[in-house]
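Section 5: illustrative case.
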């Protein structure tokens, strides 16, 4: 395994091995991360990376596309089936490219987009001033209510009527509640706007029928493939058939060059996995685990944004603990729990510090953890954040997370095989001197 990489580039080999080890020994609670299957890794790690395939299946600008056409056709068909969509474009390199392609397909520079503010849970590509979306388009923003920390549909309606956007974006990177796509669609219809849902975070529950479905209500639905969907890193656009040509042209030649065919092969595999019956059980377990984590933290006195969760993520407000989000993330790093610092709505601190952390259940659920394990995690997190100076306690907590990580292997045997190979290779090298 990885023998050639080891021979050619020791540094990248060691970093890769180090990452295998890090992923195994740490508890991954970043809400947007997951562990893809070995089948996806294999599809993505093979020869389709060699192939140029500008265009679409049967309509390529390069010869020799028979095999990659098979992969892309399968990815498209499976994505359509998974989400019940009329058309799917599986070429976006990432979620931001998918969003930008939708803007490019139906808007002209200067047109108005209405999206959720980043500091209320939206995404950079929904119109953040530093993002290309705000540099080329005019932006109107909505957020969450100060009291409930939930999207206030009356306010969304008011802003839509005042700003008359040409396209409304619904979707969030940091919002622990369900989204009412039908209500957004009614507002979009009223003001004559296109509606685009960015379901990057909730694609898994949506595909499993555990979250309201955006597809019937939206002109466009974009997602990444690597979060709750558990595929390779990438993006997808779903749309009604009437927009298919505009979307495909926006991705290529509008925005991207050659599609990453090895990643598209990995997406096809991930969609096949998501269409299998076990995927719904996995998504149900994610939701149960996130609730258990939320309850465990709330019982220990942590204030949760919106008071809890009904999706895969939990956002914790640390202001009462006199900790910033970045400090908390560093403390949790020391006990082997990986999270990201995150702004809470109306946060007085800048994004680099922030008053909160965002936690998510998808990755550790993939490793097999259940509610009781997430309750244990809540205890570990609380103990670390309440006693950041207690080195003895932090060491004990690290031992607990190492035990937990050990009980739930990701790629069983992979790290051990790499280490054994190193030992054998070391013995050979010494013997050969
Ligand atoms: N970076 C992603 C997240 O963590 O939610 C959004 O693109």
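Designed sequence:
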């Amino acid at each position: 395994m990885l023998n050639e990489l080891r021979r050619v580039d020791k540094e990248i080999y060691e970093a890769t091995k180090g990452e295998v080890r890090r992923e195994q020994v740490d508890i991954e609670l970043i809400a947007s991360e997951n562990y893809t299957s070995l089948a996806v890794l294999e599809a993505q790690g093979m020869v389709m990376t060699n192939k140029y395939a500008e265009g679409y299946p049967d309509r390529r600008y390069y010869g020799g596309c028979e095999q990659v056409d098979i992969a892309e056709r399968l990815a498209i068909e499976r994505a359509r089936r998974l989400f019940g969509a009329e058309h799917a474009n599986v070429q976006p390199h990432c979620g931001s490219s998918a969003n930008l392609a939708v803007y490019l397909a139906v808007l002209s520079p200067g047109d108005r987009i209405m999206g959720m503010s980043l500091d209320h849970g939206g995404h950079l590509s929904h119109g953040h001033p530093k993002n290309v979306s705000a540099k080329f388009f005019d932006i109107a923003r909505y957020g969450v209510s100060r009291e409930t920390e939930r999207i206030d549909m009356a306010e969304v309606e008011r802003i839509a009527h005042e700003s008359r956007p040409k396209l409304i974006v619904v979707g969030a990177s940091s919002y622990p509640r369900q989204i009412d796509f039908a209500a957004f669609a009614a507002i979009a219809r009223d003001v004559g706007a296109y509606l685009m849902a960015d379901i990057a975070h909730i694609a898994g529950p949506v595909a499993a029928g555990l979250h309201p479905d955006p597809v019937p209500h939206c002109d466009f639905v974009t997602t990444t493939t690597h979060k709750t969907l558990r595929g390779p890193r990438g993006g997808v656009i779903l749309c009604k058939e009437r927009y298919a040509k505009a979307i495909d042209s926006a991705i290529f030649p509008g925005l991207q060059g050659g599609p990453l065919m090895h990643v598209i092969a990995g997406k096809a595999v991930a969609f096949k996995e998501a269409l299998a019956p076990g995927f719904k059980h996995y998504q149900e377990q994610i939701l149960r685990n996130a609730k258990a984590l939320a309850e465990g933290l709330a019982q220990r006195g942590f204030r949760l944004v919106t008071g809890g969760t009904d999706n895969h993520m939990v956002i914790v407000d640390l202001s009462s603990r006199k900790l910033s989000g970045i400090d908390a993330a560093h403390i949790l790093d020391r006990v082997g729990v990986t999270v990201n610092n995150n702004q809470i709505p109306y946060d007085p601190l800048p994004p680099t510090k922030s008053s909160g952390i965002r936690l998510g259940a998808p990755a550790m659920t993939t490793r097999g953890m259940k509610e009781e394990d997430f309750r244990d995690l809540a205890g570990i997190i609380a103990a670390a954040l309440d006693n950041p100076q207690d080195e003895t306690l932090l060491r004990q907590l690290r031992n607990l997370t190492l035990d937990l990580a050990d009980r739930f292997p990701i790629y069983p045997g992979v790290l051990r095989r790499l280490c054994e190979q190193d030992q054998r290779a070391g013995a050979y090298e010494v013997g050969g001197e």
